[in-house]
Amino acid sequence: MQIIPVASGKGGVGKSLFSANLAIALAQSDKKVVVVDLDLGASNLHLALGMQRNKHGIGTFLAGSSSFDDIVLETPYDGVRFIAGDSEMPGFAALKVYEKKKLVSNLLALDTDYLVLDLGAGTSLGILDFFLLSPQGVLITAPTVTAILDAYLFLKNIVFRMISQAFPKKSHGSAYLAALQTDVQSMQRLYIPTLLEELKKCDLKHATKLEAKLEHFKPRVVLNMVENPADADKVFKLRNSCKQYLNIDLEHLGVISKDSVQDIALASRLPVIVYKPDAIISQGIYRICEKILTSEDLHFEDMSGVDFEEYSDDSFNLANEEAETDYRSRISYLEDLIGSKTLSVQDLYEVVRSQHFEITSLKRENQLLKTKLKQAIEQGFIS
């Protein structure tokens, strides 16, 4: 079984839509897939699959009012089964340790080739722990400043979770971390490479194991809602920050272009790859699916000897080429529509108006970030 946790630093970047469509794409390649809605408290993956809400879900299973078999549902798509979440549950933060263990053990016992976990937005411990079920979890982001920043903060929380798990209670490393956490400003400015060196000085045994685990942690990023090739460059900043500050590297699984057909498909209660398989957005999902199908299923303990940096470089270069290809396809499609007079002046007006609205929103967002940055400098948080 290959586990594919899918997370995002924030909501609204297409995480659930990606999870649903990826599950179907994998099943179309004759694979058995189970897709799980772990966005507890805000479960809506059933909508992306075009299904009705079910009375049985993870909440009823953990409450003891249904068996695990009761919550594993068939879907309209061959090879895909679905486990619903529970919109009444407050989320992973409220789950007890034994409940999480019970859920994990049942999920890992499933007879399936791929287990796609649609995690909630945010950084609660439950979300972080489920993301760490694989060293190759998928992080969905978008080419906006806030989405990239939230993706980085999610990965930063993941790394700190790995650090806290690496040092048992009463160990020297645990004592050092506890003392460090009392100085909030120092924690915020901390470089993980520097922290590792300090931990080695006081607890070499556990720090060495942590360093090896961090070397084996290779999360994968998907850049969604791409409109032009320049958007694809923005995720390079995320990778560079992760390498410099967090001591981890990323693999780029690919880009998915923004496409209005997604909204039409969702309104029709159909996954976009079912509604229009040849759409640009669908082709992006199929490209990512193919990469997953041909990749090796890696675990934390079996990644030694992998020349990951060169592999990661290639994945980022390929993603840039895919963004260029999608952009040329979109432009060619518009030119064909204009040439055939299928696209009216009113249609063009709507496109321009939509673009103008998005540019205005980005300007406001940029101004807000500048204001926050200025306040942080004035308050001494940034030197």
Can you tag this structure with a few keywords?
18 helices, alpha/beta, 383 residues, single chain
Describe the 3D structure:
The chain has 383 residues and is of the alpha/beta class. Helix content is 56%, strand content 11%. It contains 18 helices and eight strands. The chain has helices spanning 15-27, 45-48, 58-63, 68-71, 97-108, 125-131, 145-166, 172-180, 184-188, 192-202, 204-216, 229-232, 234-246, 261-267, 272-275, 280-294, 308-339, 345-378; strands at residues 2-8, 33-38, 72-74, 80-83, 114-119, 138-141, 220-226, 251-257. The chain has an eight-stranded mixed beta sheet, with helices on both faces. It is globular, with a radius of gyration of 22 Å. The termini are far apart.
Terminal-residue CA separation: 48 Å
The description of the largest β-sheet is: 8 strands, mixed
Q: Sum up the overall morphology in one term.
A: globular
In terms of per-residue confidence, which ranges show pLDDT below 50 for 5 or more consecutive residues?
none
Tally of strands: 8
Integer-rounded radius of gyration? 22 Å
The helix/strand series, from N terminus to C terminus, equals EHEHHHEEHEHEHHHHHEHHEHHHHH
Mean pLDDT rating = 83
Helix content: 55-70%
What is the quaternary state of this protein? Answer: single chain
Tally of helical segments = 18
* Strand portion: 5-15%
Strand order of the largest sheet: 3-4-2-5-1-6-7-8
Task: Indicate the structural class.
Answer: alpha/beta
